Structures are given as structure tokens and as C-alpha cells.
Amino acid sequence: MSLLSDEAFPSMESLSGCHLLSKLVVEGKLQEDIRSRHSILHFLPESLAKLVLIRSEIKQDPMAILERLPNLRFLQLHNSYTGSKMVCSAHGFPKLETLKLISLFDVEEWNVKENSMPSLKILHIEGMRKLSLIPKGLKFVTTLRELSIRFMSQSFVDRIRVNEVGIEGEDLYKVRHVPSISFSSTYN
After folding, report:
1. Number of folded domains in the chain?
2. What average pLDDT does range 45-65 have in this prediction?
3. Which InterPro entries match (predicted)?
4. Most C-beta atoms within 10 A of its C-beta, which of 33, 126, 135, 168?
């Protein structure tokens, strides 16, 4: 299912009854009710295996809700979160295999707790210009096989790779176990 709109989606409540929905792409602003205790994402069905959010402008950390989706295997957040901090809790994202974080321009801090994302194989980080460190908790994600870093600052990249004279970046220990790490299009 794909929802595309230039207008803000007034509610996603109708999705909560879609018990067989496995793939969802939402492009456009998600209307958040500031009076509600629940995130707009609260209504996503547990059956979701693939979720792509593009230009959603979510103000609350989406990970708190998304990490509870028991069947989620693929998650892409593309310019969809406007907050400065994200947290992946212990035992969150039990089946997530692919995580793509693209153009989350305001995220300065991303915490990954031990025992989070125990099935993660592919991680793509792109265009997160305020993120200065790779999460320490990634060292516990032993299933991670592919890490792709794109359009990130040179200082971010330097922290996780070996330079031309053989000196290791100070954060390389967090991702040393990953067999494939690629970098492209860095900037100063």
C-alpha cells in the first residue's frame, strides 16, 4: 500500500484494522495531534514487514513506536523525523534486517542499546549532517554484514575507518565486526 499526498495525513487510525498489511510507503507530512499521548505511528498494524516514511516531519522519536512492530524487517526513514535524538531500545526491532536512515537533518544523537536490532544485516546512513558519531551500541549488533555511509561529513567517516597511514579512527571498534563497510561522497 502506498499513500502519497502533498497535504498532511489527518489520521492513520484506519490502518490499525489492516491486519494483513505487510508493506507500506507513506510520502508526505503526518499530522501529529499534540494533545494526544500517542504518536501518529501508534496506529501502524503489527503485520507490517516493510515500512518507508518519506518527508513525514514527525516530531517525536519514531523509534519508540517502530521498534515494537514485531514483524518489521525493512525500515526506511527519509527526511521523516525533525527531532535531534533517536533511541533504539534493548530488545527493540526484533526482526529488522535492513535499516536506511536518509536525510534526517536534525538528528544529532542516535543511541543504540545493547540487545537492540538482533537481526540487522544492512545499515545505510546517508545525509545526516548533524550526526557526529556512530552509535556505540552497534558493536553489539553482531549480525550486521553491510554498513553503507553516504553524504556524511569527513569527520564522521574518519572516526570509523583506517586512514592512508594505517591509523584507525577512534570509533572503528564499534563496527570492526562488519565485513563490508563502504563510504561515498563525503564533505567537509
Report:
1. 1
2. 94
3. LRR_dom_sf
4. 135
